[in-house]
């Protein structure tokens, strides 16, 4: 399946009465605090000389994004999201074309992510993740059996203190290398991006 198509495995994520997409919060409710990124070193914020906001540099694989939202049914919810590894090409039981997940010549790519509930009860899935090329093409998650382990267990319920780690699969044309992994649920004003290795 290509970027404009929708996977049949896309699900909504629900935190109490709050609709969420993919691995964390996605709601019309504004976050109660600005998201935080955990890194080995802290980069001071810079101020643009004009009124235009500076472009945010993508995170590195292994960096953790902290997403906080005020859920009307259970109060403050806090979730950590990490994109940790990327592999392309990678193997699965069938090629993308054989399972109608891509066109002939497409290959599998795997993004390993980890989601933890710090506070609140959540249900997680892969729907808010995409791979993006430098020229603006995006690829949606696809189902692939027999891919790299551990597989991302869509629909898992997490209580505070629980984590889920696994590989999300994407069908990408051979010769195409996405530049970033993008996490963009509706509750995040600015999508979070992680740089992917060139090879």
Give the arrangement of secondary structure elements:
Layout: E1 12-15, E2 18-21, E3 36-38, E4 64-71, E5 75-90, E6 106-119, E7 122-124, E8 129-132, E9 138-139, E10 141-142, E11 156-158, E12 163-173, E13 180-183, E14 192-195
Antiparallel strand pairs: 1-2, 3-4, 4-5, 5-6, 6-12, 7-11, 8-9, 8-13, 10-12, 13-14
Give a description of the structure.
It is built from no helices and 14 strands. The chain is an all-beta fold and about 200 residues long. The chain has a six-stranded antiparallel sheet with strand order 3-4-5-6-12-10, with no helix packed on it. A four-stranded antiparallel sheet has the order 9-8-13-14, with no helix packed on it. Strands 1-2 form a two-stranded antiparallel ribbon. The protein is globular, with a radius of gyration of 17 Å.
Please describe the structure with a list of short key phrases separated by commas or semicolons:
mainly beta, four-stranded antiparallel beta sheet, disordered N terminus, 199 residues, six-stranded antiparallel beta sheet
In terms of DSSP E residues, the strand content is 35-45%
Average pLDDT works out at 81
The Cα radius of gyration reads: 17 Å
Biggest sheet statistics: 6 strands, antiparallel
Q: How many beta strands in the DSSP annotation?
A: 14
> Which sequence of strands runs across the widest sheet?
3-4-5-6-12-10
Please give the count of helices: 0
